[in-house]
Design goal:
With 92 residues, this protein is mainly beta. The chain contains 1 helix and 8 strands; from the N terminus they run βαβββββββ. The termini are far apart.
């Protein structure tokens, strides 16, 4: 299977699943790729759903940035490919 095919959606596909885990809109968070150092919003990631979950890749170098698997009672979030994630917080 070619994991780098053109059969992907953008990072907005992560909005609902991440909303279940975080109290803010995570698609606006800016991540830094551990592979190439590129930065961009979660909404700009290339998201592949042909796995047992969602796999988000860097739009620049195709490095895996995030893996999200949701089960009936748990969710697993792997951010190994993300060097940092800057999350905008609502004003208090």
């Amino acid at each position: 299977m070619d994991f780098l095919s053109d059969d992907y959606t953008d990072g907005n596909a992560l909005a609902g699943p991440l909303r279940e885990l975080f109290a803010v809109d995570m698609t606006e968070a800016v991540g830094r790729c551990a592979g190439c150092g590129g930065e961009g919003p979660v909404a700009g990631m290339k998201v592949y759903a042909q796995a047992p979950g969602l796999v988000a890749r860097c739009p620049s170098c195709q490095e895996v940035l995030m893996r999200l698997v949701r089960g009936p009672s748990d969710a697993w979030l792997d951010l190994r490919g993300t060097m940092s994630l800057r999350i905008p917080m609502p004003a208090e």
